[in-house]
Amino acid sequence: MSVPPPTDFVGRLPLKGVRRSPPPTDCVGRLPLKGVRRSPPPTDCVGRLPLKGGVVGMSKTLLVVGGGIEALPGVEQAKALGLHVVVSDINPAAPCMKIADDTFVASTYDIPETIDRAREFHEEVRPLDGVMCIATDVPLTVASVAAELGLPGIPVEVARLASDKLAMKDRFAADGIPIPWYSEVTGVDHLVSINNERNTTLVIKPADSRGSRGVLRLVGDVDLEWAFGEALRHSPSDRVMVEEFLTGPQVSTESLVLDGVAYTPGFADRNYELLEEYAPHIIEDGGELPSHLSDDVQDAVRDLVERAARSLGIANGVVKGDIVIFDGRPHVIELAARLSGGYFCTHEIPLNTGVDLVGNAIRLAVADPVDSADLVPQYQRHVSQRYLFPGVGRVVSIGGHEEVATWPGVEMVEIRVSPGDTLRSVDSHPARAGLVLVTGANRQEAMILAKRAIEAIDIVMEPV
């Protein structure tokens, strides 16, 4: 593959520098309002050039379920494509609510409420042409809205399978998809029995949570009663499962499935250097692109992702995979029917490959044609991401981040905490304090730059 061009990968001004979470100002100078909010002026508040492929069409309207900070680049992208963007969120001051053309307030997890508000908007304000989520784990809400309003999307039962880890594993097992050994856990005594019978490390997790909440490795002297309670506490349906912890390299994949064929430009090595430090919690500290795995193994992973998507019934849509290479063979840990968080889909994949995965997912959501050729990597630029872990206590001050954001190769710095915040021990991915995202001439250079950037950001803490 050729060396990437020096220009921005989608022809836009770089989204570079420090991001605070959430941004302090509204780029179009408006205040968030409860309920439906009308359109802003037709200017581009982020001042960027149109994306490759031209404008989708001013007549089309897209609902984005979830308005968090990580969805912001995707919403900006949909607007740059010429779509009228509606955002729903429980928080009327959510970052995406500030730049959306219209909004309504509804919990992303409350399916009936979101359907009711979407139908009201669809019938009384402006017809919707599509619905999607970006960096928000609510594919069942999205599919339910799509089904109710006759919009493009995966079937509700497919989304339900992809949102229920136990049901997903049952389907994979029936279809011969390689997965870790697993079992539902009905109580503490059951967990103790399973742990005694299995001569291996187990992971306990909620059957239907997200963001690594309640996910624990049963190692050392972990109290099994506590572990069961933690997993149960994070399950909306009060269901818990265990599965075997398979040792080996883990990768994150992201694909767009078109007519049953999975195109997988997203392929990152996950970094678990802090696995023991934060045990029993399983905390990922970024990762690297492109993968260090051999071409044969990568091809096997891509084939497995396509088979797993077919097993779930996803013929057209987004598929995010968590894969482990165990004993030389890829196994599915989980598969999600949505665009990823952590800026993987919005930043890492396009920086690494030149593929505009989010833009093509947006087109698919509003039933615009997607050319599979646009999902083929144009090059392989080296990308590294690392997170901030300042420790436990109260944040006194934050420094160095603005300077780091100016360094060559630093593509993004995000600070998720503020002075006065009280930080507890990291027990899930949302508890991480910020991140850096960098590029380099090679893998080692990118990793060193990411490490230097993290070390140069000074978050001063005091005990509480």
Describe the protein's topology.
Layout: E1 18-20, E2 61-65, H1 72-80, E3 84-89, E4 102-105, H2 111-124, E5 130-132, H3 139-149, H4 156-163, H5 165-174, E6 182-185, H6 188-197, E7 202-206, E8 216-218, H7 224-233, E9 240-244, E10 250-258, E11 261-270, E12 287-289, H8 295-312, E13 317-326, E14 329-336, H9 344-353, H10 357-365, E15 382-387, E16 393-399, H11 401-404, E17 410-415, E18 422-423, E19 434-440, H12 443-456, E20 458-462
What is shown here, in short?
With 464 residues, this protein is of the alpha+beta class. The chain has helices at 72-80, 111-124, 139-149, 156-163, 165-174, 188-197, 224-233, 295-312, 344-353, 357-365, 401-404, 443-456; strands at 18-20, 61-65, 84-89, 102-105, 130-132, 182-185, 202-206, 216-218, 240-244, 250-258, 261-270, 287-289, 317-326, 329-336, 382-387, 393-399, 410-415, 422-423, 434-440, 458-462. Among the domains are: 18-153, Rossmann fold (3-Layer(aba) Sandwich); 181-244, ATP-grasp fold, A domain (Dna Ligase, domain 1, 2-Layer Sandwich), CATH 3.30.1490.20; 381-464, Aldehyde oxidase/xanthine dehydrogenase, a/b hammerhead (Aldehyde Oxidoreductase, domain 3, Alpha-Beta Complex).
